[in-house]
Amino acid sequence: MNSASDVLIIGGGAVGLAIAVELRLRGVSVTLxxxxxxxxxxxxxxxxxxxxxxxxxxxxxxxxxxxxxLYPDWTQKLEDLTGQSTGYxxxxxxxxxxxxxxxxxxxxxxxxxxxxxxxxxTAAIHLAQPGLGDRVVxxxxxxxxxxxxxxxxxxxxxxxxxxLGVEMHEGVEVLGLEQRREQVVGVQTSAGLWRSPxxxxxxxxxxxxxxxxxxxxxxxxMFSVTVPSGAMASATAELPLQQVLYAPGAYxxxxxxxxxxxxATSEPVGFMPGNTPAGLNELLAxxxxxxxxxxxxxxxxxxxxxxxxxxxxxxxxxxGPCDNLTLAVGHYRNGILLTPMTARLIADxxxxxxxxxxxxxxxxxxxQAGAGLLPAPxxxxxxxxxxxxxxxxxxxxxxxxxxxxISAEVPIASTSTPDPKLLIIAGRxxxxxxxxxxxxxxxxxxxxxxxxxxxxxxxxxxVRRVQTNAPGHEGLGxxxxxxxxWMLPNTAGCKTAEEAIRVARLGREMAKLLGQxxxxxxxxxxxxxxxxxxxxxxxxxxxAEQLVKEGFAVLPYxxxxxxxxxxxxxAGCATVMPLGSPIGSGQGIRNAANIxxxxxxxxxxxxxxxxxxxxxxxxxxxxxxxxxxxINTAIAQAQDPVLMGHAMGLATQAGRLAxxxxxxxxxxxxxxxSPLTGTVTG
Length: 682
Ligand SMILES: Cc1cc2nc3c(=O)[nH]c(=O)nc-3n(C[C@H](O)[C@H](O)[C@H](O)COP(=O)(O)OP(=O)(O)OC[C@H]3O[C@@H](n4cnc5c(N)ncnc54)[C@H](O)[C@@H]3O)c2cc1C
Ligand SMILES: CC(=O)[C@@H](O)[C@H](O)COP(=O)(O)O
Prior knowledge:
alpha/beta; D-Amino Acid Oxidase, Chain A, domain 2; TIM Barrel; 30 strands; oxidoreductase; FAD-dep_OxRdtase; flavin adenine dinucleotide binding; Thiazole synthase; EC 2.8.1.10
C-alpha cells in the first residue's frame, strides 16, 4: 500500500496540476496520479481565454471573468518559478459575423453587443483585420479576451509542480474509489492501493468512471498550420494574424511562434478516437471562409480531444459526496480559462474549508434536485382501492412521502451515497428511471393507479392506436394528467421507416394538442415482424436520421446490437432502447452480454425496453448499468397491476442504487466474514 501526502489528486490535466501547484505554495504536501497526460483535453485545447466571445452569462461569466483577471499574475508566477514561457498573450478576440450564403451581406442584422464591446461594421472589420473573407460582414472586438498556449502552460505547470516537490506519478490509472460511509478510504490503482487524508477528483471527461457525476465527453477535432515566411508582413516580418478570429464555423488562434491553431468540432460521439474527413472538412471550410490565405499554409498537425461536458455546461467544483473528497471536473469548453480560479477556489476549500459564495452555483448537488423535474417520481404504495395482499411491513423498504420525493431515492436506513445523477434525456431531467406503457390495462382507472404506484414520469402512448381509437385506446390521450407526466409518443404499428416518420409527426401534434407544446420526444418503433415484434434495424436507422434532422428527440427501440446502437447515437438519437426479449414475452433479459456492451460504449442513456417480466429482471438490468427501463405488459397484465407497478418502481431504484454501490466480485471460494487469525482456541 502506498501512503500518499496530505492530499491526493487524481488527474494531471491543467486543472489537477494547477491545484497541486497552488496547494504546494500553501505548504500542503501533494501526490498526483495521472493515467496519461497526452490524452488530457488540456493538451488538445486551443487555449482561448474567451469569456466574452463564448457568450457566457450568470455565475459562469462571473467565474470566467475572475479567472481571466488572474491570468497575468498567475502566468508570471509560473514563468518565474520555471523559467519557461506559458505563451500567455492578451491579444484580444475578433468575434466575426458571417453573411449567410446567398443573402445580401448588407441586409444581415446583428445581435446587440453583450458586453458593450465595440461593434465593427463591414468596412471597419476589414480594416481591423486585413485578409478576411468576403462573407465577414462585421463583428465585435473583445479587447480583454486573449489566449494562452495550453501545451506550454501545462508543461510549465508540470515543471512548477515538480520543482515545488509535488509527488507525481504519470502512467498510474485510478481504478476505483473505496468508500466507507461518507469517507473515501483509499483509491485502487494500476500501481496498488493509495491512501490519503483528502482526495481531489480532476479527471476531466473520464470522471464518470470513478464517480456517478454527470460528465460526458464532447469530442473536438483540431488542426494547425505554420505561417510560411512569404506570408509575413514584409516590412516588419510580423505574423499576419495578431488576434484570435472567432467565427461560427471555426476559430483561428495564431500563436507567437508562427503556428496557427484551428478548431474545433463539437461531437457527441463518446470517446471515439481519431480525426475524421468530415470533421477536418468542416474546420477547413470554416477557417478558409474567414481567412482565405490560410488555404495555402502547410498543415502541421491534426489532433482531437475530449471536453468534459456537464448538462448545464458549467463545471462541478467544491465539496463532493464524501467528506474528504473535493471535485474539480466538468470544465467543458472553458477549462483552460478557468484553471487559475479553479485552483484558487479548491485550495481555499481544502486548506480552510472555506467555500467562496461563488462555489454554490457549481456544486454537484445542483444535479440532484430542482428545476425541470416532473413532480411524481416516487413509487407510491398502492392505494386502498388496489386491495393489496397482506405485506410484512417490517420487510419493506421505506419510501418517503410525496412531499419529499428526492430522499426516497435512497432507503432510509442506508448510509450509501444517494444517486447524484438525474436521468437526462435530450436536456430534460427526470428523477424516475422507470418508463411505463399504456396498453393492455383492463381500464383507465387501473392504468392511472398503476402508473402512479410505479413512480414513472415518462409514459409512452401508441400514436396510431390513439388516433384510430383502437380498442382500449378510445380517449386514452385525455385519460392521463399530462401536467404531471411526460408523454412519449411511440410509432407502434409502423412497418416501414416512412410510416414511422409520418406517425412521429402526428405524435408531436398530439402532444401539442394535449398541452405539451415543447414535447419533441418520439419512441421510434419500426416493426415489420408480427410474430416476434423484432424491430427492423435498417428502417429504424433511416427513420432516426430523418427525425433527428426534423428536430425530434429520438428514442429508438432496437434489438440489442451494439454497432447499431452506436450508429444511432452518432446519428444524434437521444437514447438507445435495446430490448431485453420480445415485447410482452416476459422472458426477462435474454441478451445481457450485448446489452452490457451497449451500456459500456454509450454516451446517451441506455433504456432497456421490452420483455421484462418480474422486478428481479428490472433490478438486473439496472444493476448492469442501464440508465432506465420501459415496462408495460408485466405491470398491465399482472394479477394486481397497481401492486406490480409499485414493485417495479422499487426494483428500478434498488437496481440503480446497487449499480452505484458497486457489487462485490464473484469468487470461486469462500472467504470468512470474521478474521481467521487471533481466534481463541480451546
Ligand atoms: C478541442 C478542444 C478545444 C478546447 N479549447 C479550449 C479553449 O480554447 N479554451 C478553454 O478554456 N478551454 C478549451 N477546451 C476545454 C479544456 O481543454 C478543458 O475544459 C480542460 O482542459 C479540462 O481540464 P482537466 O484538467 O479538467 O481535464 P483534462 O485536461 O482532460 O485532464 C484529465 C486528466 O485526468 C487523467 N485521468 C482521467 N481518468 C483517470 C483515472 N481514472 N486515473 C488517473 N488519471 C485519470 C487523464 O489521463 C487526463 O490526463 C478545449 C477542449 C478541447 C477538447
Ligand atoms: C408499450 C411499449 O412501448 C412496449 O412496446 C414496450 O416495448 C414494452 O414491452 P413490454 O410490454 O414487454 O414491457
